[in-house]
Design goal:
The protein has a single domain, classed as YbaK protein, CATH 3.90.960. 37% of the residues are buried. The termini are far apart. The chain is globular and about 40 Å long. The longest helix is centred in the first third of the chain and has 8 residues. The protein has 158 residues and is an alpha+beta fold. 25% of the residues lie in helices and 30% in strands. The strands form 3 sheets. A 5-stranded mixed sheet has the order 5-2-3-6-9, with helices on one face. A 3-stranded antiparallel sheet has the order 1-8-7. Strand 2 and strand 3 form a beta hairpin.
Length: 158
């Protein structure tokens, strides 16, 4: 197993977790099946550009999407954009599809949708392809100092 900054960070945080290996998937539903979980328990780690060289990480349940108006309101900003692949890599050190809240720069804030706290086990990327980290939602939130906020809406309300 390739050690990743994410796996080192989750181990250093002292939280209980399990590593799950899975084959590449065509979509989130297939990824959930291969990870042994459900789509709503997968947390997509989205990198949002908040200004020139400034980013925020947003943890979004797989069955939800960012509510851009709510996120702008929460952050007190008028303009936000999803970081492109190169911006996300520069900000986190991870490529799209492997981005995780673990092992990123401490000065990048993390926001988690308010539906996640108290929700039991969740699955996040592990920083390398085909590997996920499964852990308790509250342990994740504490480990990465995530701030819960109402910043998503159901995916079918795009």
């Amino acid at each position: 197993m390739h050690e990743s900054p994410a796996l080192a960070a989750v181990a250093a945080a002292g939280v209980e977790y399990r590593m799950v290996r899975f084959e590449p998937a065509r979509d989130l539903a297939e990824a959930a099946e291969r990870r042994g979980t459900t789509v709503d328990r997968i947390l997509k780690t989205m990198v949002v550009r908040t200004g020139e060289g400034d980013y925020t990480v947003v943890l979004v349940p797989g069955d939800r999407v960012i509510d851009w108006a709510a996120l702008r309101n929460h952050l007190g900003l008028r303009r936000l954009a999803l970081a492109d692949g190169e911006q996300a890599f520069a900000a986190t050190g991870y490529r799209r599809g492997t981005i995780t809240p673990f092992g990123i720069s401490a000065d990048i804030p993390v926001i988690v949708d308010e539906s996640v706290p108290g929700g039991g086990e969740v699955s996040v990327g592990a920083g390398v392809p085909g590997v996920a980290i499964h852990l308790d939602a509250d342990a994740l939130i504490e480990a990465v100092s995530a701030v819960p906020a109402a910043i998503t809406k159901p995916a079918d309300q795009r």
